[in-house]
Amino acid sequence: MTDETAIELALEQARQAAAAGEVPVGAVVIVDGEVIAARHNEREATNDPTAHAEVLALRDAAAAIGDWRLSGATLATTLEPCPMCAGALLAARVPRVVFGAYDPKAGATATLYNLLVDPRFNHNSEVVGGVREEECGELLSDFFGSYR
Description:
By secondary structure, this protein is α/β, with parallel strands linked by helices. 38% of the residues lie in helices and 20% in strands. The protein contains five helices and five strands, in the order αββααβαββα.
């Protein structure tokens, strides 16, 4: 599966989030070319500050394979992961992360911090940013623009 296709699947999740009144971020976890988890933000619906798309997708992926170590997975998300999500990706041993839009306010894998490639951690991930960046960014801009 290409990175562009993975981000398209994450965009589908993000659109579902927007329709539900959630910040439109979606994430998918892929193992051996197959999507094993697909989620979107659910903070508003669950009143859970940790219900980011990436965290929810990691939980579902771990349940699907029966192991917290996601060492054969790629996570694709529409927005650069925040520090919490980057920490979860490190804890899950995800070797590859692909994201769409850069996050100048909370980006922890390229913009403000580079947590997934910090050699001081016991695990690092390959990070590919900016995949379908314009589409991912427009979805967020449109969502937040509707509140102004």
